[in-house]
Amino acid sequence: MSPQNYTFMFFGFTVAWLIIIVYVISIALREKKLRQELDRVKRMVEEGESTRR
Amino acid sequence: MRLKIIVTLTAIAGLILAWNLYRIFLDVPDEASQGAIFRIIYFHVPAAITAFTGFYAAILLGIGYLIRRDLRLDSIAASINEVSLAFALITICTGSIWGRVIWGIWWTWDARLTSYFVCILIYFGYFMLRRAIDDPTTRARLSAVMSIFAGVEIVLVWKSIEWFRTQHPGPVLEIRGGGGMAPGMEAPLWWNFLALLMLSTALILIRTRQETMKIEIDGLRRHAHAF
Amino acid sequence: MRFLRQKFLGQTLAIAAKDLRSEIRGKEAVNASVSFALVILLLFSFAFDLEPEQIRDIAGGLLWLVFAFAGTLILNRSFARELVNDCLDALLASPVSGAQLFFGKCLANYVLILIVECISLPVFAIFYNVRLPQRLALLFLVMLLGTWGITVIGTLFSAITVNLRLRELMLPTLIYPMLIPALIGAIELSRALITGNQLAESLFWFRVLVGFDLIFTILSLALVDIVLVG
């Protein structure tokens, strides 16, 4: 088959994998951000409760 | 427990995809008229079916939320929609590349590509709607209503564009080159579909946990500010 | 049974009359909408430089794009006008059901958008030298059917977005993909009528329009209470 065809095929597969990888990375980044936020808010609650006591 | 499920699913999906990649490149012969690019179908079609299944599963969950009012259902629905959106993007990107090779144009307004594009626009709107609402209950309620509309809409859009295309013919992405795929060639398609389904389930589980975390953070923040 | 139906209709018409009366006195939305339609027609005239043959071919599409864009201005105001002084809360607390409120507003919006369309159509015909079809009544029927589709979806999403920030931005973004089947149907039928082609092959689009209108009217009436109240 023509080499051009193969180039596009690899291009196609790459694009598909790229989208999946970018998406997974975005999920991972969101995870990190959420964990930081969760820790921050938990600390806020604890501080609030300790100052009340 | 959950982490184990996620890891197992991803691992199995990875194995199937790797094995399939081998099958696709080495075992399956080149298709007669289209050549090598035909193999893109092994990603294009499974991604399309995964996206579609996801969207409709999310709609059912949306209806379930409206009946049960359980916020977890909404979290799962939103996660499914997000993952399906990613797969819909894969569908039209691979479809576009396929089209570029076959007809030399990057885009055509055929039924499948256009319907998926409309689908993507509708679900972009869905996520925009979710972003604009702060209250989780209202967000869940309105998202569910929007999904129901989206579900009915997508069927109508597909049918109208199909008919539009029979009146104004244009290029159509053909799966079946001659009249059906040779039996040897069809199997990797369904294996890939299984792999993508497992991968998407793993991603959905992760995303759902993130959504639940968000609700927990919201609750805690409100608790903290109450004093 | 008849009593119930009368009551439904009575209150629906009361809501529609209220909206229409307020709009006719103020004339804000219709003026803005008509001006917008004229501006779009003007801009399109710069965008395209076509032979009369070609213009007749795209006339259907042009017309419905103008209708859809101008209609959005009216639809946006639909529920938004009730936010002032908590009118929306008062309406929801009243004996008027969500479905009646919704349907009344649909009727009012329908009339207003049709007014804008009836003003835009002759202007369009003059600007673009398009001779309107003999079968003007059929074109009007297409306008009636297509506009109802735009109205129903637009009014429901106006209810969904009423309490959101960036409402004016979100409404068009949400409803235009939803309107595609109705717009395709209306465009195809208008094109067939304006270019004088045989209508027989486009009859499918009549079914699409009617189907779209029926399905989304029923769906909206069923879901609007969930949207407005919860």
Look at the helices and sheets of chain C and give the structural class.
Answer: mainly alpha
Strand content of chain C: under 5%
Largest interface: A-B, 30 and 32 residues
Indicate the radius of gyration of chain B in whole angstroms.
Answer: 20 Å
Helix fraction of chain B, binned, reads: over 70%
Helix content of chain C: over 70%
Stretches with pLDDT under 50, minimum 5 residues of chain B: none
Cα-to-Cα separation, first versus last residue of chain C: 27 Å
Helix count, DSSP H or I runs of 4 or more residues of chain B:
6
Q: What is the N-to-C order of secondary-structure elements of chain B (H for helix, E for strand)?
A: HHHHHH
| Largest sheet entry of chain C | none
Description:
The complex is a heterotrimer of chains A (53), B (227) and C (230). With 53 residues, chain A is mainly α. In chain A, 94% of the residues lie in helices and 0% in strands. Chain A has one helix and no strands. The longest helix of chain A has 50 residues, at 3-52. The mean pLDDT of chain A is 84. By secondary structure, chain B is an all-alpha fold. Chain B is 81% helix and 0% strand. Chain B is built from six helices and no strands. Chain B has helices spanning 2-27, 41-68, 71-103, 111-132, 136-167, 183-225. In chain B, helix 2 (41-68) crosses helix 5, helix 2 (41-68) crosses helix 6 (183-225) and helix 3 (71-103) packs antiparallel against helix 4 (111-132). The model of chain B has no long low-confidence stretch (mean pLDDT 83). In chain C, helix 2 (28-47) crosses helix 5 (98-127) and helix 3 (52-80) packs antiparallel against helix 7 (167-195). The longest helix of chain C is centred in the middle third of the chain and has 30 residues, at 98-127. Chain C is mostly helical and 230 residues long. Helices cover 83% and strands 0% of the residues of chain C. Chains A and B meet through helix 1 of A and helix 3 and helix 6 of B.
